[in-house]
Each structure stands twice: as structure tokens, then as C-alpha cells.
Amino acid sequence: MLEFFRRNQVLLSSGLFLTLSLVLLSVNRGGTRRFDPLGVVFLEVLRPMQSGTTQATSAVGHLWTRYVSLVGVEAENRELKERLRSLEADLHRDAEIELENRRLARLLDFKAEVPSQLVTARVIGKDASGIFESFMLDRGETDGVKPGMAVVCADGVVGRIAQSTPHAARVLLISDHNSGVDAIVQRTRARGIVEGAVNRSCSMKYIKRGEEIDVNDVVVTSGLDGIFPKGVLIGRVSGVTRKDFGLFQVADVVPAVEFSRLEEVLVLTSPPREINVAIEAAERARATPEPTATETPAPTPTPAPGAKRRTPSAPKPVTPSAPKPSTGPAPQRAPHA
Length: 337
Description:
- 36% of the residues lie in helices and 22% in strands.
- The chain is an alpha+beta fold.
- Among the domains are: 14-76, no CATH class; 118-286, Thrombin, subunit H (Beta Barrel).
- A hairpin with a 7-residue loop joins strand 1 and strand 2 (134-137).
- Residues 317-337 have low confidence and may be disordered.
């Protein structure tokens, strides 16, 4: 018997489980759920496993959704950052263009006041040695720029051309110790020479001791040095030195131009004498009042010698004209008896 069960244990086990399954199915179809002890056991055993599996699946799905969303947000954030950088660059470029337009507008206003041929130039470099106070310009001899020409800006005097090449030029500033400008005090017309100082400022020397000059007096060019036209602003007096001896006094002058912020300048290519003559003519024209327009009588013609002078005759009265006859055949006259 035992030998039979050993040989056929697979068939017997399969048949037993099949019979048990059929019994359970028949019991369940009958609606008697109380006879399903294995189902209750399986349900209790599988409930925590199913709940854990559901929670794990939900957590993984949530993490995956957040990961995909973060990937999209990162790409959008990168795109927004690039757009922000582009807009900031456009804003800075527009602001720079606006500032340049303001500077050029001031140069145009100054150009309208100075009757001279002008060349607009940009500052492209500064002296790096520190020995000279000078700038490099992007205009040269091909543009009409030559050594000795005056360089100004909307704020006042800048300097003069010290050296030029076909496409560049070097400007010696008035704050350089080798520079000198013939100047006058605008209020008292006291004359002197404005020279550069070692501390990158200016001083007005050779002012007669008896001349009146005070702090905050305006100093302008005199137009007598053959370089700068008359009346261009140089700066203001910041201090006056009067010694107990000597024939002259010295005034410290603060330049009106901030050379560290200078970007565009004007080079005066016309001779200073012509500019001064034009300035004086413009001043006289402004000072002279304009005459009122009056009607001038028409000139009477003079008769030729030997010709008889005609006396004007009185106008003839106008008489009404008779009505014109109708345009037709003329009437025939009756013969005489």
C-alpha cells in the first residue's frame, strides 16, 4: 500500500487538491461563505501585503510625477534665465545709447554756438605712463585734424592736438603741466595764463597784482593765443594766492570738464581768427536791435535830356455806351420823291 502511494503520490495529491477545489467552489456557489475558512485566512494574510504594495506603488508614482515635473521646471527655468539675461543686455544697451544720445545732443548744441568747422572724435585711450595728461582720439590727418588745433566739448576747453597720424591723434589736456591757455576772468576781464599743475588741476598765473579776482569767478579763453576761440569756458576760481611781494598773483582754477568721464570731443579745424571774427559778428548782431520794416516809395523815373515832360491829364468821365444793334441785315432807306 505504501509502495502504491509512493509511486502515485503526484497523481493522488493532484486529485486531492482538485477535489478540495471543487468542494470549495460548490460551497461558494451555494452562498454559504462561512464554510470558506481558507478564503478568510488568505484575505487576512494578503491585506497588509496588498496595502503595502498599493502605498509603495503610489509613492513611486508620485515621485516619478514630481521628477518629470522638476525636469520640465528646470528646462523652463533655464529658458527664463536666458531670456532674462537677454533682456538685461538689451536694457543696458538701450541705456547706453540714451546716454550717448544725450552727450551728442549737447555737442550739437555747443556746435551751434561756435561758428567753426568741427570734427567729432571719440576718446579711445588714455596715457598709461602717468607722465602726461593726454587722450587718444580716433580721428587723424585724413579727417583734417592737425597738431595745434583746439579740442573742446560741451562743458568747455579740453586741450589741444599735440600729435597726429593719418587715423589717430593725441590730445594734451589743459591739466597737463606742459599746457598753457591764454585766459581772462569773465567778471573783471583780468588776464592771465592757465597752466596745468602737478596735482592734475590748473592754476592761472601772471595775473597783475592790482587786478580784482575772487573765488567762484568764471575763467574763459581770451582768444589771443591763436589756438582757442574767445569765450570758451575753462573753469572756476577755487582760491587766490597773493604774496607780500612780486608783480603778479596766482589763482587756482578747477576745470569745468571732468576728464575722467570724457568720451566724445570736438576738434576745431577753422583758424581761431576766423572763429573770433564770426563770434564778434554774432554778438554785434544780437546786440543790435532789428529795424522795423517800412514801405519805401517807388523811385520816379527821370526824363531824358531834351524830352518833353508830359503833364498828367485829368481823368475823363466815363459815359454809358449806347446799346449795340442786333447783328442782322441793315434796313433799306426809302427813295426821295
